[in-house]
Design a protein that fits this description.
Rossmann fold; single chain; alpha/beta; binds FE2/S2 (inorganic) cluster; 161 residues; four-stranded parallel beta sheet; 5 helices
Length: 161
């Protein structure tokens, strides 16, 4: 009888610990990744065809060039439930449209300053250069932003949903 009671208590404690762990691990961020068609999208494709594993939290949106990306689209993504945003394009000097990636970087730097003003942490929007030959780098970038956003938790401040 006494052993049964002890076992039940231990089971209850274990279940409570498991539930706590599940709650901590349960947050799976939604990350919108705007990838330029010519480099980063091809890098993501290479990661996939090379069967590299990476965090399944990103939703990829292919854009012609990162220079074409309006900051309003980033704000809208947060409004629609994104917890983080990745913008990734060609390396400096490799932009298919010559200077789109420089434009994007400039915009991102200004946008980054604005993030705190609108109540979002700066790590929620990240920018990277990934070429078509860098499937491994793409994996690292995705895993890093996923871990960063998991640490920050859900984006509540600007989320209208
Ligand atoms: Fe890739 Fe411009 S074409 S960033």
């Amino acid at each position: 009888m006494k052993q049964n009671a002890e076992r039940k208590t231990q089971d209850a404690e274990r279940n409570a610990q498991d539930a706590g762990r599940r709650t901590q691990d349960a947050f799976e961020p939604k990350i919108v990744a705007f990838l330029c068609n010519w480099c980063s999208y091809a890098g993501a494709d290479l990661a996939g065809t090379s069967r590299k594993q990476y965090a399944p939290n990103i939703r990829i949106i292919k854009v012609p060039c990162t220079g074409r990306l309006d900051p309003i689209v980033l704000i809208k993504s947060f409004e629609m439930g994104a917890d983080g945003i990745l913008v990734s394009g060609c390396h400096p000097g490799d932009c298919h449209y010559r200077s789109g990636n420089y434009l994007a970087r400039r915009r991102w730097m200004i946008f980054n300053e604005m993030l705190q003003f609108i109540g979002l942490e700066q790590d929620r929007v990240q920018f990277s250069w990934v070429s078509a030959a860098e499937g491994g780098k793409f994996v690292d970038v995705v895993n890093k932003i996923t871990e960063d956003i998991k640490k920050l938790g859900p984006a509540k401040e600007y989320n209208a949903s």
